[in-house]
Specification:
The protein is an alpha/beta fold. Helices cover 28% and strands 23% of the residues.
Length: 249
């Protein structure tokens, strides 16, 4: 077994004495495509912040590539796409410039981009299907195209672990298909790992290695087929929220 890229062991966190995450343990290893799902208020966002070192747990431990998140320095190994990322209003950045920014974490920011940088940028643009829009301003793109541009920025750093928070929320079907292709390519062709935090898994359900169901604690961690065999669907339900998750107590 390869050493996990991301590990949480019995993590607990409370806000004002109210437990939000309780006794959570999970692992993401190289070459795995893992989804973290749960209803609103299940603790997904809080857990993600803990895993990335933005919050410190009350109890338990977290490791990113074998280090505590607050001591982790190899940032090029981690690609992160937050929910509804923004460049700031009015910033006239092109798609190519946004994606090229992903190379800053992969090398020395003070040197001119070299052939490996240009190749990585081109590969990332091709993977998400934005080659023809490379000179367009990101602010002029559709919501789905903008999200693909930010995914390309993360891919351009050639990360070992890609973490995405609700990346297909409000995104059209065509963009969801490109999104799926990009993630599967990253896992299968580059042996990278993906942790996808989402309400809706219809676009990638058949490609997942594991699904982790969270409602304060981990209620399920296993292959999606084990859920499907019980009649559970990972596709779209009312308001894009799998209602079976709301039934967890």
């Amino acid at each position: 077994m390869n050493a996990p890229l991301l590990r949480a062991d019995r993590v607990t966190f409370s806000y004002g004495g109210e437990p939000v995450v309780h006794d959570v343990s999970l692992r993401v290893s190289p070459g795995e495509f893992v989804a973290l799902v749960g209803p609103n208020g299940s603790g997904k966002t809080t857990l993600l912040k803990i895993l990335l070192g933005l919050l410190r747990p009350d109890g338990g431990s977290v490791e990113l590539f074998g280090s505590r998140p607050d001591r982790f320095r190899e940032r090029n190994r981690l690609g992160y796409v937050p929910q509804r990322p923004s460049l700031g209003s009015g910033l006239p950045a092109t798609v190519n410039e946004v994606v090229a920014a992903g190379r800053l974490a992969a090398g020395a920011w003070w040197r001119p981009p070299g052939a490996p940088d240009r190749e990585a940028i081109e590969h990332a643009l091709t993977t998400v299907g934005l080659t023809e829009q490379r000179h367009a301003r990101v602010s002029e793109l559709s919501g789905g195209q903008q999200q693909r541009a930010f995914i390309a920025r993360a891919l351009a750093s050639e990360p070992d672990l890609l973490v995405l928070d609700e990346p297909v929320s409000g995104v059209d079907a065509g963009s969801q298909a490109r999104f799926r292709e990009a993630l599967v390519h990253h896992v299968r062709a580059h042996e990278g790992a993906v942790l996808l935090v989402s309400h809706e898994l219809g676009a990638v359900a058949s490609d997942l290695d594991r699904v982790i169901v969270l409602k304060r604690s981990v209620r399920f961690d296993g292959p999606p087929s084990a859920l499907s065999e019980t009649g559970v669907s990972l596709g779209v339900h009312e308001s894009d929220l799998p209602l079976w998750l709301e039934g967890l107590h």
